[in-house]
Amino acid sequence: RDGIFKGLDAVLEWHPSDENSVRNQPGRAMNSFEVEFFGQAAHASADPWNGRSALDAVELMNYGVNLMREHVKPTARLHYVIPGGGEVPNVVPEYARVWYYVRALNREEVQQYYEWVLNIAEGAALATGTTRKVHLITGVHEYLLNRPLQETLQVNLELVGVPTFTKKEQAFARSMQRSLKVEEKGFNEELEPLADEPQPPKGGSTDVAEVSWITPTAGFSVVTAAEEIPWHSWAVTACSGTAAGRKGAVVAAKVLAATG
């Protein structure tokens, strides 16, 4: 939009992972947004009838969205957290805030579900006697794949080779898996083949997808964490901060250099 990527020939990117592979799936489009509710504070025991709970509005909105889940496609994702829900139990919360991600296969579906969620927020405000304010933080498209760049990255991943790990490093990875009750496979040392056709979407969303709509873009993943441990968890951080985790970054740097 602002011309930052104007004149750029191509973009290459990598992501830490528990597998070694060239990206061959489009991920999901997404809207990230917050809904703030404004009510009226009152003493929750002495005169609650004088209050209007912003937290009630958040809870009612979330309940409505959870009922909505039955009627969206299995490929959609709706998740939220409540960053602000009041200060103390004896005060009716006059302010509350909920943060949502709405994900789907493409922008059209995201927009459809986003508008549905906003209607639920409006209903929650009406039902609780509160007002609301919506803040759209960002929206991203699905990732456009580029086959020639994908194939080049695959060749260079094969050329550089995936990370290999010592017995001590593998024992550490298995200890992470054991603590999380997943199969004790250790670090993955295999390179996934590049399938002939794009694969079904998996994982989350990325702002790199926006760049892929401007210029040819391709990405890949290199192992930095033990296989099949929960992503965005303490165990991923523990793996990535070790010498074993850094091996993945070194391999990625070499592949990027060889391709660029």
From TrEMBL:
GO terms for biological process: folic acid catabolic process. InterPro entries: Bact_exopeptidase_dim_dom, Peptidase_M20/M20A_hydrolases, Peptidase_M20_dimer. One of its GO terms (molecular function) is para-aminobenzoyl-glutamate hydrolase activity. Residues 187-208 are annotated as: Disordered. SUPFAM superfamilies: Bacterial exopeptidase dimerisation domain (SSF55031), Zn-dependent exopeptidases (SSF53187). Residues 31-121 form the Peptidase M20 dimerisation domain. GO terms for cellular component: cytoplasm. PANTHER family: PEPTIDASE M20, XAA-ARG DIPEPTIDASE. This is Peptidase M20 dimerisation domain-containing protein. It comes from marine sediment metagenome.
